[in-house]
Design brief:
about 80 residues; 4-stranded antiparallel β-sheet; Alpha-Beta Plaits; 4 strands
Length: about 80
């Protein structure tokens, strides 16, 4: 049987206030993250206060996926959506 695949979408509001807390959590669990993609709007003179981060996790990181989800959910201005395959 194949291991489950987990993809997490993280919507970050008020990036200037929440980015440090989100980055600390992602760094703590960095060994379990296979792919990380950050998306946000930019302009010549500014950067959007809202951003989207997509994470693909290591095939055997089920327990850690739940831990990182709980840690991120505790950060104000962070919304999480999951995909499992």
């Amino acid at each position: 049987m194949f291991a489950k695949k987990y993809i997490m979408g993280i919507m970050v509001e008020h990036r200037q206030e929440t980015a440090a807390a989100v980055q600390e959590i992602l760094t703590q669990y960095g060994c379990f993250i296979k792919t990380r993609l950050g998306l946000h709007q930019t302009a010549e003179d500014s950067c959007s206060e809202r951003g989207l981060i997509l994470l693909e996790f290591d095939d055997h990181a089920g327990k850690e996926v739940a831990e990182i989800k709980n840690a991120l959910a505790a950060v104000s201005g962070v919304e999480i959506r999951m995909m499992e395959f």
